[in-house]
Amino acid sequence: MSVLDEIKEQVIAGNVRNVKEKTEAAIAEGIDVSLILNEGLIAGMGVIGGLFKRDEVYVPEVLMAARAMHTGLAVLKPLIAKAGLKERGVVAIGTVKGDMHDIGKNLVIMMLEGAGFRVIDLGIDVPAEEFLRAVEEQRPQVVGLSALLTTTMPQMAETVKQLKACDATAQVIVGGAPITETFAREIGADGYAADAASAVELVVSLVSGKP
To answer: What own/partner pairs with CB < 8 Å and gap ≥ 24 does 200-206 have?
Structure first.
């Protein structure tokens, strides 16, 4: 097994110490930083995402894998900067105004980062104005809106309306327990994801232009 395969397997296993050691070993071997990132760390999170979507692993396993992946990423960061590697894309995400829940949002963030995206976490209870400011200042390709309470669905609809009214190219996706694909279409969102793994697939398709 190559060291890249070992990194991938240890990310899947959520083994922080082994991921750090294997990442350092790959660097010592002179393996290109992009290969370590894409074929080791990101590939491992990709496997976890697929397993999660099929209900073969659950939130604790995803969190462990994400923690391990971030440990390897921390080792790579100085080399990534030197190599001038570009991020896969930029995503701004937040829980809409009136809703304080963040577990689902945080899980999506971890998996997006594991897929190579830079994520701007706007937090919870985010008014439409903050989403608009993020679009203007950060220029994300995708904006994600999360809601867990049915009472905040109208706020999600209003936020989508304002984002669509502004002169921006960012595409808007929505998700959360009470949200459905039908509702997403009704409020004019560009996409809907039922879970974190699906959210990553959706963002990848939107950024790549391959739905």
So the answer is: 200/49, 200/108, 200/111, 200/112, 200/115, 202/173, 203/89, 203/91, 203/112, 203/115, 203/117, 203/142, 203/144, 203/173, 204/88, 204/115, 206/141, 206/142, 206/171, 206/173
The Cα–Cα gap between 145 and 67 comes to 24
- With pLDDT > 70 as the criterion, what percentage of the chain qualifies? 99
Residue that the structure tokens 């829940």 belong to: 101
Q: Could you read off the pLDDT of 57-73 as tens digits, one per residue?
A: 998 999 999 999 999 99
Q: Whole-angstrom Cα distance, residue 10 to residue 151?
A: 41
Q: Which domains does the chain have, with CATH numbers?
A: 3-83 (1.10.1240.10), 90-208 (3.40.50.280)
Residue of 138, 121, 131 lying closest to 164 (CA atoms): 131
| C-alpha R_g of the chain | 18
CA distance 28 to 143: 38
Whether residue 211 has pLDDT greater than 70: no
3-state helix, strand, coil in the chain (%, to 5): 60, 15, 25
Look at the block and give the residue holding tokens 């370590």: 36
